[in-house]
Amino acid sequence: MPKVLGRAMQVAAAGGAFELVQKEFPEPGPGQVRIRVQACGVCHSDSLTKLGLWPGIQFPRVPGHEVAGVLDAVAADVQHFKVGQRVGLGWHGGHCNYCNPCRRGDFVLCENGPISGISFDGGYADYVIAPANALALIPDDLADADAAPLLCAGITTFNSLRNSGARPGDTVAILGIGGLGHLAVQYAAKSGFRTVAIARGQDKGPLAKQLGAHVYIDSTTQQPAAELQKLGGADVILSTLTSAKALEWAVDGLALNGKLIVVGAPDGPIVVPPFPLLLGRRTVTGWPSGTGMDSEETLNFSALAGVRPMIETFPLEKAEEAYERMMSGKARFRVVITTGM
């Protein structure tokens, strides 16, 4: 397993521009693998790397935590994974096995867990060195460019919904039809939930129905909470929104024992009225992404049920353009970098 040369789009300092560099990618160390990257999704969380917002991040750093590729090298002590297998790597960059959450089997909450593209170099490159315990196998009938966004936006929405307690036939509302929301609508509908999509503008209605929504609510002309209560209230509301102000009505749209799950990071504190919580036993919670096995199950379900992201692709050397396209909010709906490897 000799070292290899390849390209990487790295950030040399917080807030700096991407720079294309040639670098050596070494043999994987104990417990590690080397992935030959085929595609890497561009996520809003990559701004934590680009802008140096994550505490303790070290530069230069290569962003990217939605990695789809092929195993190029595998350390001798790694079991289960073999050279030539198609694998994915998400936000969860492995776990220590020794902290209290890991000892309880709750690996995604590992107190020492590295984050792909933050703790170590990520997928804006030809190769990635990663912990083997973070990997997911990619099914044969899922293209690399489609698999990449599912390793963050996909797993976050799929995993939160399948752990929400909702059962087939329950009413599940998705707030926002964007990078996360357009996948959440598909997962909710394919899981047998009565799916309500909520967004701004009548123009998003046809897309919501195309994605599988049974009901569309235009928040600019309708009162979402009142409309949800006409349906009996939402058993689950999954918020992909980044506006805290736009969430203030959400608890009022829940059914008794309903749950508001926040997966999009709002831009400020969420205002929650106390009486709907107290009198209706409603809850507000968040959800992180998931482990490599959660990612693998997300990919398998997506392949089985026909869930696919809507993507725009850019070559690796145009990573800056790809990143700016994502940050502008104009992408429909996920941006993916391809390496041509």
Description:
With 341 residues, the chain is an alpha/beta fold. It folds into two domains: 4-153 and 289-338, Alpha-Beta Complex (Quinone Oxidoreductase, Chain A, domain 1); 164-286, NAD(P)-binding Rossmann-like Domain (Rossmann fold, 3-Layer(aba) Sandwich), CATH 3.40.50.720. 24% of the residues lie in helices and 27% in strands. It has helices at residues 47-50, 100-103, 144-162, 181-190, 205-211, 224-230, 274-280, 292-305, 319-328; strands at 4-11, 18-25, 32-42, 67-74, 86-89, 127-131, 135-137, 171-175, 194-199, 215-218, 234-239, 254-262, 283-286, 311-315, 334-338. The strands form three sheets. Strands 3, 4, 5, 6, 7, 14 and 15 form a seven-stranded mixed beta sheet that branches. Strand 9, helix 5 (205-211) and strand 10 form a beta-alpha-beta unit. Helix 3 (144-162) packs across helix 4 (181-190) and helix 3 (144-162) packs across helix 8. The radius of gyration is 20 Å and the shape is globular. The model has no long low-confidence stretch (mean pLDDT 97).
